[in-house]
Amino acid sequence: MATDVLEVALPSRLRRTIDGSTDLIFKILRIGLFYVGLILVWHLVASAGIWEDYQLPPPADVWDSLRRSWENGRLQDAIQTSMERLVIGFAISFVIGIAIGAAMGSFKYVDETVGSLVLGCQSLPSVCWLPLALLWFGLSEQAIIFVVLMGSVGSIAISARDGVRSIPPLLKRAGRTLGANPLQMLRYVILPGMIPSMVQGLKLGWSFAWRSLMAAELLYVSGGLGFLLQFGRELNNISQVVAVMLVIVAIGVAVDRVIFGRLDQWVRERWGLT
What's the pTM? Predict the structure, then answer.
């Protein structure tokens, strides 16, 4: 009996594996063909002479600029500097945002007071925090990290609040009925219940933190990808400007797909949302 079951199950599992691999191959081909076509259109437009090379460089010039920056090590150093700042600022904003959001979602008066302040600060462009950061911290790493923090903490807090509000009241009543104290309610009911909503909040927080970091590095020259971008503008090197912009986009897409995409898939499978 067990053998018959295995004989039936194995081909079905094999077919699913083959179908999944085929879908992945076609997906990669579609994405690859799209970007190849995009580069081809870029090359044709640049070759048409509608704009000068200092306004729209051809892909080959951008690639040469990217290769030179990589060979002399400036690009690696800039990426490392920017990512270190981002990780520190995003980690701090995550802890503060979770705490504020959980309090906003759990207590009405906190939401009415602190929540209105968070919403107001969230509507403020992150670059507006830079003058204040420079006055408080001076020309330092702390100023840039502060801008990253203020640019992302609001979205994380709002997502955490929505996550707490989305928890079914029945679960909270069940926890209280079983005698859970406030700390146990937070650990076993509120935090696990808000995780599905927090994934989108983390993605938004990451995107806002990344934009805030680039804005701060553009205005305050201190290394990083923003420094390379500003340096290329000062030299009227449009190829370097476009190359750095492509690197910034590539890092954003890679982090979204590799980290947050997998995290979202895991949460959906773990919480039965798939």
Answer: 0.77
